[in-house]
Write a structure and sequence with these properties.
The structure is a single chain. The chain is low in regular secondary structure and about 130 residues long. Helices cover about 10% and strands about 5% of the residues. It is built from two helices and two strands. The two termini are about 20 Å apart. One of its GO terms (cellular component) is nucleus. Its main location: nucleus. InterPro entries: U1_U11-U12_snRNP_70-35kDa.
Length: about 130
Amino acid sequence: MAEDNTFDNWVSLFSHRGSYDPLRAGSIDGTDSLAHDRAVIRAMTSRYKPNTLVATDPNRTLFIGRLNPKTTEGKDANKMMIDSSEIIVEHEYERKLKGWIPRRLGGGIGGKKESGQLRFGGRDRPFRRPM
């Protein structure tokens, strides 16, 4: 009997970095054909237009949250500890990934897989092939 392995088709949400698909982002194995929760439906039906007035390079965009205002970020700052706080350097997707939908509209990366969020990822919690 041949083993039916649906994971042969599994790919990470950002493996090809071509475009963002909320249905694939919300699917544990990337094979869902129907949305399973309201966040995915909201992401699929939302219309998001990236800010075209921003003239900076998306590869050099910096957002700092919950840090001391005197803290500076260095070239190799990812996972660095400053004042007992871990620094996470993440990529900007708004201007680099076609079809990107922010987390507030049901898309995005972030969340914790332990809490049932399937859209976890990024450098802090990288995508892993489901077991």
